[in-house]
Design goal:
Distance between the termini: 10 Å
Shape: elongated
Number of strands: 20
Largest sheet: 7 strands, antiparallel
Helix content: under 10%
Number of helices: 1
Structural class: mainly beta
Length: 229
């Protein structure tokens, strides 16, 4: 029986995803041990986006496409997202879901939701790396100590302008002398440092008829299971 899932959005408002698919067992599954394609004898409910648990298939893989043809077993193309904690870069591909061992006549399970299947999402806004306390002010960030100004340029690099000296008049700071310009490396080189190692990923939740919902996989958005009345 389908179930409802509840979660809290970015504003703390409770949301409900209706009729999330229950786990379904797939039988007579063939896994070749090298590719991201598996075959099954039949499927009762399989949709793209569903997470899959199958012998020989990396944990976190999900169904990318369902290939059916008359008289032949159904083929499932699997994909997987992976996060490199050293570089802070996501990759999502079929290669990530390549099977590692061969199995014949085994069983697998597909899910409307699985906490193990996190799919990459674009990085949140923000480019610079701050090393001292700052406070936001529009599109710029000012360091409270020395009026350092930080921003991001068109190449995704963090730029810091630090005055040589200056004077205060009430709340107004007037810089003087030749400022020092600091230019960080490009965003693509060290994205993890720009985002404090956060996993900007998402869960794909599949409901009846294959309807997909996307929920950010971050603390505070935990999904709560609630059976359908």
């Amino acid at each position: 029986m389908p179930a409802d899932f509840k979660y809290y959005d970015a504003f703390g408002i409770e949301r409900t995803i209706k009729n999330v698919l229950e786990p379904v067992e797939l039988t007579e599954v063939e896994v070749d041990g090298t590719t991201n394609i598996i075959t099954v004898a039949h499927t009762d409910v399989v949709y793209p986006g569903q997470a899959i648990c199958c012998p020989g298939v990396p944990l976190g893989a999900f169904v990318h496409s369902v290939r059916k043809s008359a008289g032949n077993p159904t083929s499932l193309e699997l994909w997987k997202s992976e996060f490199n904690r050293s570089t802070g870069v996501w990759t999502t591909s079929g290669a990530n879901a390549n099977s590692t061992d061969a199995y014949s006549g085994t069983s697998a399970t597909v899910y409307g939701f699985s906490p193990f299947a996190i799919v990459e999402l674009a990085y949140a806004m923000g480019m610079w790396r701050n090393t001292i306390t700052t406070k936001a002010n529009g599109n710029l960030v000012y360091a409270s100590a020395n009026r350092e100004v930080q921003y991001s340029d068109g190449f995704g690099r963090g730029v810091a302008v630090v005055p040589a000296s200056g004077s205060w008049s009430g709340q107004l700071f007037t810089p003087s002398g030749t400022p020092t310009l600091y230019l960080s490396d490009e965003l693509s080189a060290t994205p993890l440092k720009r985002h404090n190692g956060e996993l900007h990923g998402a869960y794909i939740i599949v409901s009846a008829s294959g309807y997909q919902s996307v929920v950010h996989a971050v603390p505070g958005r935990e999904l709560l299971y609630s059976p359908v009345a």
